């Protein structure tokens, strides 16, 4: 975490309002000191991550945000399903499909552990 904004996490409401709640969570815990310019992408990424976890994962789903200053902001969503994620594909044709998190993140990945996974995305100014 940075010197301005503590990291924060929250259980995700597991219904169709999940993405809206995720954006509200970012409203409350976003580091405007370091990452004001990243907020648009962050909203889209957090929405996509929680929607995937609520749709395909196993509860409970937890959203986390952590500002690392010059190293960027990390958004993470964890759930109890070690498989996946299964993001909706975007792209011009089947041979070039990707997903929104891949497109918008500077880095992203999946950490698996016994009984669950965390999908993370890093945005750098
Ligand atoms: Zn910060």
UniProtKB/TrEMBL annotation:
* TM stretches of this protein: none
Which domain of life does the UniProt lineage start with?
Bacteria
Q: Which Gene3D superfamilies match?
A: Histidine kinase-like ATPase, C-terminal domain (3.30.565.10)
Keywords, comma-separated and alphabetical: ATP-binding, Nucleotide-binding
Does the record carry Nucleotide-binding as a key word?
Answer: yes
Q: Name one GO molecular function term.
A: ATP binding
Note whether ATP-binding occurs among the keywords.
yes
InterPro entries referenced in this protein's UniProt entry, alphabetically: Anti-sigma-factor_SerPK, HATPase_C_sf
Record protein name field: ATP-binding protein
- Which species is the source of this protein? Kineococcus halophytocola
């Amino acid at each position: 975490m940075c010197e301005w904004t503590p990291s924060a996490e929250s259980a995700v409401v597991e219904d169709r309002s999940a993405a809206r709640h995720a954006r509200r969570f970012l409203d409350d815990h976003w580091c405007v000191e370091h990452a004001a310019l990243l907020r648009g992408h962050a909203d889209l990424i957090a929405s996509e991550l929680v929607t995937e976890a609520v749709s395909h994962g196993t509860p409970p789903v937890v959203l986390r945000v952590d500002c690392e200053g010059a190293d960027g902001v990390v958004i993470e969503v964890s759930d109890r399903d070690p498989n996946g994620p299964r993001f909706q594909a975007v792209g011009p044709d089947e041979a070039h499909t990707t997903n929104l998190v891949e497109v918008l993140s500077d880095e992203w990945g999946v950490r698996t552990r016994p009984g669950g996974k965390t999908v993370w995305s890093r945005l750098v100014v």
